[in-house]
């Protein structure tokens, strides 16, 4: 197997804190070693990013955009290699891994044409007021294990375009695609502009309190996000937090239940349910509840659950042992408080496989409904009154996204607009792209990622206000 290195100041180096085995979640076997940085190497990476910042930020934005475009092309040229490594470390089926790499390419490309033009706030004979946007400095990018590549690109594209430099720290269980990207980026970017350090879950806190990091771009759980925010307060660091969710699918009474159940199933089970915006609970009109549940159960029983590298696998393992153990607790809760009509147990084979699970007749207060389960497990509730459903959905501390399914699109959009979430999709799911801001409300996040709003998060707005003679 290939040897992976950290990237610090344009050098591919070993980790001073040794190596850690990376486990393939489909086999539970260590298949590669990840270099682990110590605190001194983190400091070197931050110092390199700080030293690279003046020259990088002074380059014309068009030049930085060209280099981001080259990164996208280089990633595209090695799509299959990245996808294969992603499947091995993360677990998702190869076609989904290929899609994540493509989405990463599109994200980078999406930022290439964006610009940060000064904005004239006032222009009168007496007064000219201009707002312009300056980069912040060194950005610390901290990413989770469910989409290690695209969630890094969501940060890297806008951060570098705006003129910042970056230190990236992937999740300890999925570091390798980030390290492979570091190799690729090192052939394109000037030394120090992009650095990668890996850890045993111990460097994140040092990044969030680091005096020379100007901003933390974090994607991960709400619990860790709260720690990031508290720690960043020490230096009033900028933060964007993309956190957890408990997204609802609301099915309206004018849909065709079987076809809609198929869409909801995909929304809940893609990446074995480990998507921040996966469908995590479903509300179905009472009159079609049985048909809808039966179709979900049929799909769950028919799904091919297997090693993601195997042809035809539709649902892979969950990514790591901790998540696997947590899901077993959720399954116990589902059995105790609801009716399990498909799945309900781990598969009897090596690997962190959970049978796709559908639970019906379950109460709102059960853990599987009220918490983020982050796995291939879907609770389905019935309703008779849509206002009541909207209240139930909005009771959550989370507000990341959600879906509304309805034939009458205006009515569905009206329901969607009453959901307190950063995004609600109508008759579609996962429509995420570089041009449209993505953000969480309530405890699902702070600040935007993607879109012009996301780009602005990597800048400081400055106002120049002149009295004209
Ligand atoms: P996590 O919070 O455990 O870890 C995320 C990252 O934070 C990892 O790199 C980890 O090493 C690092 N970290 C750990 N402790 C830290 C600390 N004290 N300070 C700074 N960094 C620290 O999350 P996870 O379990 O890897 O990911 C799953 C979670 O991520 C889910 O809740 C999911 O909903 C969420 N998520 C959100 C989005 C979004 O865009 N909103 C996208 C994907 C995943």
Largest sheet: 7 strands, mixed
Oligomer: single chain
Output the CATH class name of the largest domain.
Answer: Alpha Beta
Number of strands: 24
Strand ordering within the main sheet: 14-15-16-13-12-18-19
The CATH superfamily label of the largest domain reads Aldehyde Dehydrogenase, Chain A, domain 1
User: Percent range for helical residues?
Assistant: 25-40%
| Proportion of residues in extended strands | 15-25%
- Stretches where pLDDT falls below 50 for ≥5 residues? none
CATH topology of the largest domain: Aldehyde Dehydrogenase, Chain A, domain 1
Tell me what the CATH architecture of the largest domain is.
Answer: 3-Layer(aba) Sandwich
Q: What count of domains describes the coordinates? A: 2
Instruction: Tell me, rounded to a whole number, the average pLDDT.
Output: 98
The gyration radius over C-alpha positions equals 23 Å
Derived structural class: alpha/beta
Name some characteristics of this structure.
469 residues; Aldehyde Dehydrogenase, Chain A, domain 2; globular; single chain; alpha/beta; Aldehyde Dehydrogenase, Chain A, domain 1; binds nicotinamide-adenine-dinucleotide; 7-stranded mixed β-sheet; 6-stranded mixed β-sheet
């Amino acid at each position: 197997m290939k040897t992976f290195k950290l990237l610090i100041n344009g050098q591919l180096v070993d980790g001073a804190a040794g190596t850690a085995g990376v486990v393939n979640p489909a086999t539970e076997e260590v298949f590669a070693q990840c270099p682990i940085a110590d605190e001194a190497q983190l400091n070197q990476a931050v110092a390199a990013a700080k030293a690279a910042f003046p020259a990088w930020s002074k380059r014309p934005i068009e030049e930085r955009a060209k280099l981001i475009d080259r990164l996208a092309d280089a990633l595209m040229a090695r799509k299959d290699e990245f996808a294969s490594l992603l499947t091995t470390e993360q677990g998702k089926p190869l076609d989904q891994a290929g899609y994540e790499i493509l989405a990463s390419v599109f994200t980078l490309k999406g930022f290439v044409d964006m610009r940060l033009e000064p904005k004239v706030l006032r222009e009168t004979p007496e007064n000219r007021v201009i707002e312009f946007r300056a980069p912040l400095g060194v950005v610390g990018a901290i990413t989770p294990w469910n989409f290690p590549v695209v969630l890094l690109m969501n940060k890297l594209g806008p951060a570098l375009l705006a003129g910042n430099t970056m230190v990236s720290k992937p999740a300890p269980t999925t570091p390798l695609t980030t390290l492979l990207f570091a190799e690729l980026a090192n052939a394109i970017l000037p030394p120090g502009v992009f650095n990668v350090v890996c850890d045993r879950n111990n460097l994140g806190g040092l990044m969030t309190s680091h005096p020379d990091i100007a901003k933390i771009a974090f994607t991960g759980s709400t619990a860790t996000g709260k720690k990031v925010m508290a720690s960043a307060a020490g230096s009033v660091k900028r933060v964007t937090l993309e956190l957890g969710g408990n997204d609802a699918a609301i099915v309206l009474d004018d849909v065709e239940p079987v076809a809609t159940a198929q869409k909801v199933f995909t929304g809940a089970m893609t990446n074995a349910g480990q998507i921040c915006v996966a469908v995590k609970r479903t509300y179905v009109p009472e009159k079609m509840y049985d048909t809808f549940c039966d179709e979900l159960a049929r799909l769950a029983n028919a799904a091919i659950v297997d090693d993601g590298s195997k042809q035809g696998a539709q649902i892979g393992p969950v990514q790591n042992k901790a998540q696997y153990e947590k899901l077993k607790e959720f399954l116990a809760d589902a059995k105790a408080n609801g009716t399990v009509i498909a799945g309900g147990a781990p598969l009897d084979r090596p690997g962190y496989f959970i049978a796709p699970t559908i639970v019906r007749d379950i109460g709102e207060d059960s853990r599987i409904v009220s918490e983020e389960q982050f796995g291939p497990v879907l609770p389905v509730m019935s309703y008779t009154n849509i206002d009541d459903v909207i209240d139930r959905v909005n009771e959550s501390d989370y507000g990341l996204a959600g879906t509304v399914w309805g034939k009458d699109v205006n009515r569905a959009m009206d329901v969607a607009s009453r959901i307190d979430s950063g995004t609600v999709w109508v008759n579609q799911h996962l429509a995420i792209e570089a041009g449209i801001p993505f953000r969480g409300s309530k405890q699902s996040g702070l600040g935007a990622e993607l879109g012009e709003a996301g780009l602005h998060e990597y800048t400081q707005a400055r106002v120049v206000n002149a009295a004209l003679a």
